[in-house]
Every structure is written in C-alpha cells, then in structure tokens.
Amino acid sequence: MSGVEKLVILLVAVVTVCAAVWPIPYRRFDSRPKTDAFCQALYPFCPTGHPDGSMPKMMDSDVVEVFSMKAPVWEFKFGDLLAHFDIIHDAIGFRNNRTGLNYTMEWYELFQLFNCTFGHVLTDMDPPLWCNQGAACLYDGIDDLHWSQNGSLVKVAEISGKVFNELADWVHTDNNTGIYYETWMVRNSTGPDSKLWFEAFDCASFVIRTFNKLGDLGAKFNTSVQTNYTKITLFSDQPVHLGNTSTIFGPKGNKTLATEIRTFYEHFQAHQPFPSLLKSMLEAFDTIVLEKKWYFFYNFEYWFLPMKEPFLKLTYEEVPLPGRKEVTLA
C-alpha cells in the first residue's frame, strides 16, 4: 500500500469519526438473512415456540396481564449460581384472562452467547465468521417455578387485546429488522455523565423496547415495580471506525489490520484444550489491559476501541418502567 493510499484511508477514518453521532445507531435490516451453515446451536433456538416471533390473535376486548420475568442465565445448568453475580436473563409473560392461556416471550441468541460475542477464526486468510443472530421466541405457557424460584415473576401492567395485537405487529417488524445480538455496551467512563459509544442489543434491551412500545400504545404500568437489567460494559476513549469485511479483508484491504483483527479474535475461540485456553486468556489480558486494544464488531463493521480503566464492568442497573420518573439509588 502506497503512502498516498495510507493517507487517504487515515483521512477517511478521521472524517468518519468526526462525523459520527454517538451512540452509533444500531443498524436495521429489510429482512432476516439465512444463517451460515457453519453456525450450529448447542441448544436449539425456540424448540417449542414460534421462532419467527409471531404472536396469537386476541379479541379486542380481552384483558391481558403483562409480567416482567427474570431468571439467572443458564439456570437449567448452574441453578442460581449466576444470580449471585447479577447475570440475569429477561423475558415477558402474558396472561389472557378470558381464555386463561399464558405465553412467554423472550429474545435471545440463535447460537448461544459466546458465538454472538466473538467471531470464529477459521483460516489465516479469511475474515472472522460471525454467528451473531438473535431473535424473538414466543411459546405457550409460563414456567412459574423457573422464573420465580431463583428470579422474579411480577405483574407490571394490564392491556387490552387490541393493544396486544398492535404490539404483535410491532414485534414482527422489530424481530425481522433487528437481527443481530450485541453483548457489549461501550462507554468512556463509569460516571453518571459518561459518553455512550455503543448500546447493547440483547434480551434486556428487547424487554425494555417492548415495555416502552406498550407505553406508547397507552399501557399503564405499575410504577411501584423496580426493574433492573444486567449490563456488560467496555470502557474506551473515542472509538475509531476501521471499515467492513470488504474494505479490511478484501483484495484491496489492509493486510496488516486484517491480521491484527484475526489475531485478536483468536484469543476467544471456543473448544480449545485447557493449556491453549489458558494461553489465549493470558494473551487477551495483554492485548486488552496492557496494550489497551479491542477490535469491536458492530453493525457488521469493525471499530478500534482505545481501552481504558476499568476496562470491563458488569452492573445491574435500573431502567424504570414507562411512567416511573425516578431511579432508585443503590
């Protein structure tokens, strides 16, 4: 690559960053594409429900109760262990008072969390392959024991069947245009006035969006209920836009940058033997903490994060229900 070409790329990057609106808006799509055959789920997505997120039709006059539901991530495998670290999965429950039928709706990864968080490095030439789709799943029934034993199952609103049907139309659109899962939130500091660079797009954000949409549709919430959500935050100075798969890994791409990105994600490959995994974790620590580098994948583009202390933080923060103005201080 000539000096002129490098200068042009640098100028484009500077202009892109200067023109960026923070936080970077999550990219929406016209429709959901097919997934790559390489992407395989250890646990099938939405095995007993409607993986397209479709919802039953209600009579306009029906009274439908709405529930906030929370349980520890991977409770089926670890019980309440992750609840002690505030690593919580969120969902919404509905109960039709006329029919007595219950429904559970949740939004989660098609191919499990690790696949959504880190790309797969398959060769030393190709770009990382991402299995990062997420989607809504609605299925019959509410497993009261699952949600209430180690988490919570709380009624937060009552809506009409008409509002439920309007919500169903919105869920269908949201599900087919918001197609990929994003684990990380990225900020510049821990303070209350910190700058938000990127927002997460996960089970919690889906529940928050849905409750806000119900508020827009006229639902009145029980604002005495406090709702907290798990957030995993990376901390960096202002991100630098690097480009997409074609511009970085294509024939006219930046081979040095492509190698650095592949090397970064090689630290996070699953199914490694323990000695290799330990080595990868130590190398990841060096890259993130000592060298202060993170190559972030968002909107199917790569960004460079100049990492800073505390580097990563897990919090359980209140996001008030629609109509609740104050936030309860911890």
Summarize this entry quickly.
29% of the residues lie in helices and 27% in strands. The chain is of the alpha+beta class. Strands 4-3-2-1-5-8 form a 6-stranded antiparallel sheet.
Please tell me the total number of domains.
1
Alpha-carbon Rg, integer = 21 Å
Chain-averaged pLDDT: 91
SSE run:
HEHEEHEHEHEEHEEEHHHEE
Residues in β-strands, percent: 25-35%
State the end-to-end distance: 53 Å
Describe the structure.
- The chain is of the alpha+beta class.
- It has one domain (12-318).
- It contains nine helices and twelve strands.
- It has helices at residues 3-19, 75-78, 113-117, 144-149, 161-177, 203-216, 245-249, 255-266, 274-290, and strands at 63-72, 88-96, 102-109, 134-140, 152-160, 185-187, 196-198, 220-221, 228-236, 240-244, 293-298, 301-318.
- The strands form two sheets. Strands 4-3-2-1-5-8 form a six-stranded antiparallel sheet.
- The protein is globular, with a radius of gyration of 21 Å.
- The N and C termini lie far apart (53 Å).
- The model is unreliable at 3-18 (pLDDT under 50).
- GO terms for molecular function: hydrolase activity, acting on glycosyl bonds; palmitoyl-(protein) hydrolase activity.
- It comes from Branchiostoma belcheri (Amphioxus).
Give structural attributes:
9 helices, six-stranded antiparallel beta sheet, 330 residues, six-stranded mixed beta sheet, glycoprotein, 27% strand, single chain, alpha+beta, 29% helix
